[in-house]
Each structure stands twice: as structure tokens, then as C-alpha cells.
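C-alpha cells incoming
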């Protein structure tokens, strides 16, 4: 994305903001869909995110990549929707021994996007969100916990439980490497 486009949008040029919207519409929608699991909700998250972008564009200082800044707004909007619908109320207590013993690696057949997509869709909303934020978006457990208003143990336990459920659904026993 050209810096000039961002500068023009900050000055209030409607055509520049429209271009920003078109530039980021698909990635924001895709992220929202991954987190909420529902197209209608993802569309609502997209609209709310873009409204916040319009209101807060002047706050963006350029200290970090623009997509990272906008992505955080989208994640917050999606998680807020899940909280509003009381879909974040999963038991977040897990023993450290359970967390340490659990393998949190995605199944190797994750390369089969359609198969993985169906398996992810079958997970509870919050579990799917944690898995997506951790593996696809590269969030740390601390960042996930902060975004969700939960503990680091909550993030770790959801990752471990979600991975176990995915492995069971996909009937996979082997491991792959993940980010640290």
C-alpha cells in the first residue's frame, strides 16, 4: 500500500479512504470469518472495523506496519462480538502440568485447506479464535490473553484442547514445528 494513499486518506479524501477500504476489505473479512466462524458476523466485523478505521486513521503514527495496526482493530472487533454473544465463556482453568504435557502443534495435513477449514469450523468459537490467532496470525499467548481479557493459561489450554480436537477430527498423530 502506498504511503501517499494513507496520507491522502488522513487528509480526508473520500476516494483515498474508498481505496483503503477496497485494499483491506478481503483480509479483514477473512480474519473476521476465521475468528467468528460466521459470514454474517464477519461482514459486521468488517463494517465495524472500517468505521473505526475512518474514525481513528489520524491516530495511526506509522511506528508499525499499517496492516498490523488495522489487524488489531479487526481482532478486537471480532472478539468483542464473541464476548457480547457470551461465546467466550469456556472454562479457562488448566493445570500447568496439563499445559506442559500437551502438544500444541498443528496437524501436518493442515496443508489440506478445505479439510482443515471444516475441522476448524467444528471447534467452539473461542478455541478456533485462539488457534487462528496463534498459528495463522502469529500472536503470542500473552497477546491472545490480553486481547481476550483472559489469562495466559487460558490461551495455552485453549490451544492445547483445540489442537487435540483437530488431531482427533483429522485422525492425525504426527507432529510439525511451530513458531516460538
Amino acid at each position: 500500500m502506498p504511503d501517499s494513499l494513507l496520507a491522502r486518506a488522513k487528509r480526508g479524501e473520500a476516494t483515498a479512504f474508498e481505496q483503503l477500504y477496497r485494499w483491506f476489505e478481503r483480509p479483514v473479512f477473512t480474519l473476521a470469518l476465521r475468528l467468528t466462524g460466521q459470514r454474517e458476523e464477519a461482514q459486521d466485523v468488517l463494517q465495524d472495523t472500517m468505521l473505526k478505521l475512518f474514525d481513528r486513521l489520524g491516530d495511526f503514527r506509522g511506528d508499525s506496519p499499517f496492516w498490523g495496526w488495522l489487524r488489531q482493530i479487526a481482532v478486537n472487533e471480532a472478539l468483542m462480538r464473541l464476548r457480547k454473544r457470551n461465546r467466550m465463556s469456556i472454562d479457562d482453568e488448566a493445570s500447568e502440568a496439563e499445559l506442559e504435557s500437551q502438544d500444541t502443534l498443528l496437524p501436518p495435513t493442515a496443508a489440506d485447506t478445505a479439510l482443515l477449514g471444516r475441522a476448524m469450523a467444528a471447534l467452539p468459537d473461542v478455541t478456533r479464535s485462539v488457534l487462528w490467532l496463534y498459528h495463522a496470525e502469529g500472536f503470542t499467548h500473552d497477546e491472545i490473553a490480553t486481547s481476550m481479557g483472559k489469562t495466559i493459561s487460558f490461551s495455552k489450554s485453549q490451544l492445547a484442547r483445540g489442537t487435540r480436537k483437530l488431531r482427533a477430527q483429522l485422525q492425525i498423530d504426527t507432529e510439525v514445528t511451530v513458531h516460538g
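note: The CA atoms of residues 123 and 162 lie 7 Å apart.
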